[in-house]
Amino acid sequence: MENLNIPMILTFVIIGFTIVLYALERVAIEIVALGSIVALMLLFMAFPQTLNGTPIRPEDFLSGFSNQALITVICLLIVGQGLFQTDALDKPAQAILRISKQRRWLATGPLLITVGIVSAFLNNTPVVVITLPILTTVAAAHNTSSSRFLMPLSFITILGGMTTMIGSSTNLLVANVANATGEVRINFFTFTAFGSILAAVGAVYVLVILPRLLKPRQTMAEEFTGKDGRQFIAQIPIVYGHPLVGEKAVAGMFPALKEMTVRLIQRGERPLLPPFEDVQLQPGDTVIVAATRDTLTRAISQRHPLLPADANESPTSEAEHASPSGTLTLAEAVIAPGSRLIGRTLSMTSFHADTGCVVTGLQRRSRMPRMPMTDIRMESGDVLLIAGNREEINRLRGNRDVLLMDWSATELPQRQYARRALAIFVAMITLAVSGVVPIVVASIAATLAMIMCGCLNIRQTLRTIDSRIFMLIGASIAASLALEATGGDNAIAQTLLNIADGRSPAFVLSLLFAVVAVLTNLLSNNATAVLFTPIAIEMAHRTGVPVEPFIVCLIFAANCSFATPIGYQTNLIVMGPGHYRFSDFLFAGTPLAIIIWLTFSIVAPYYYNL
């Protein structure tokens, strides 16, 4: 690099040091990102630089935090949370589960392949946003961490997107810049055949190897409330108009309660015990069931709930028809030693009157009583499944009768808003894909609509914003600005041209691919593509071969953004829901980038007769 200078060298040092710290994860990503921005500000204060004749000011390094890509990613995450919070995509997920049954590969493999094909013709970002909640639901139903599927989802859309001119914005950008020179003509399907070869090879890694490399990773809350098979006793009062009225036992089982074990049906003074033959539920019955927390959650959150939140309160208590209002939160609490609840039944306590919460289930580790829940005398160590709004659940921390397990608190899906959330989502995708409005405008409008229509509240919305994503994008844009202002990007390009002189076309193509693939994971892939388009054309001239192979090489390499979460927008979208770390992308994505590079290097000379 002949034009090296002190600001350029220090910029390379700061970027390299930042990437190393990201990968080591000894320091929080947010702190590393902020530190890199501060370092660049101080560097440019000590060595003032200009870009296109305009001085670079310290505040220019903060422009990334108002970047439309950042705003779009955050808004798409919020819209996705709205779909999750209302279970709006539960039906497609259940359809996939019915098809796959116990074969997990059927639930994910065909879906990911379909997503890869679709992403060749649609923008990758909305495709990922549509599929993410479905895959999350499928993973949960198969008792598998979503981290095994969400990174493959992002990667498969990137692979599919490299097969057509509109598969990604990078393809379109490079094609337009190259076509404008008049030296090449890149059409819709110009590189589809070659791209399909690379995508197929990459898909084998993504579908077969990648899920085995990724560690099942959950948040502390998910680990605490995970599917461990623990059973709670609950009771379902059958009143007039209840969905179970008229439900008849088939082979001793009730089809509508297939995920619950019916232990007893109390009909007046007469208990009906299993096996249930020719029993038909009728108003006035009380069905005593044993079920997992997830099953009880679904029963409460359905549009026509099988289990009302106050079902296990005594009908004579003050809790009658007093289900908590607003967004329901379920939490677990242990009856403390010395609690006033010990030896008393729920009907003997004033738990609802004192706390505003209602008990929806009871779990006893030693045995499962076969009696109505309201008749069970509580013991120390019993676990209560409690429903209430967030404020009421939080107040249980000061209750001396129960010990609230904080990490167990989860909000119930508001399924009554599912149709609203789905309508908002469909409108956003339609507007963005049709080009009526930019995707950033559509996503912001959808975020506002989700909040205004009650699909999300403000606290849920703010909780969706991942500080790691916010800081990563801001810091990466600041690094791109610094490289451009100090001439670091041009120095890399000039060095590449110098190395290419006198080399074989196959070697030059492979070298171009490798350099662009590295840079696209550190900087904006679009910026990298635009920078290297004229360089690729010049390299074609120096080697005396047609321009098309070099432009296609640039397109493929710029799409190899697998090794870092900042490499591509879809990586950032799955980073939070998949609970990934920076090192996860480095560890799992780098082999894929190498595989695509090696495949290209082997196939390109034969494909283009070089």
Could you give a short account of the major beta sheet? 4 strands, antiparallel
Share of residues in strands: 5-15%
Number of strands: 10
User: Termini separation (Å)?
Assistant: 29 Å
How would you sum up this structure, described in words?
The protein is an alpha+beta fold and 610 residues long. It is 53% helix and 9% strand. It has helices at residues 6-24, 29-46, 68-86, 90-100, 104-118, 124-141, 147-161, 169-180, 192-213, 220-224, 293-301, 351-355, 390-395, 418-434, 439-452, 458-464, 467-486, 488-500, 505-520, 525-543, 548-558, 569-575, 582-607; strands spanning 50-51, 54-55, 232-237, 261-267, 270-272, 285-291, 329-335, 358-363, 383-388, 402-411. Strands 3-6-4-5 form a 4-stranded antiparallel beta sheet. A hairpin with a 2-residue loop joins strand 1 and strand 2 (54-55). Helix 6 runs parallel beside helix 22 (569-575), helix 8 crosses helix 20 and helix 18 packs parallel to helix 20. The longest helix has 26 residues, at 582-607. It starts with 5 loop residues before the first helix and ends with a helix. The model is unreliable at 315-324 (pLDDT under 50).
Question: What would you say about this model in short?
Answer:
This protein has helices at residues 6-24, 29-46, 68-86, 90-100, 104-118, 124-141, 147-161, 169-180, 192-213, 220-224, 293-301, 351-355, 390-395, 418-434, 439-452, 458-464, 467-486, 488-500, 505-520, 525-543, 548-558, 569-575, 582-607; strands at residues 50-51, 54-55, 232-237, 261-267, 270-272, 285-291, 329-335, 358-363, 383-388, 402-411.
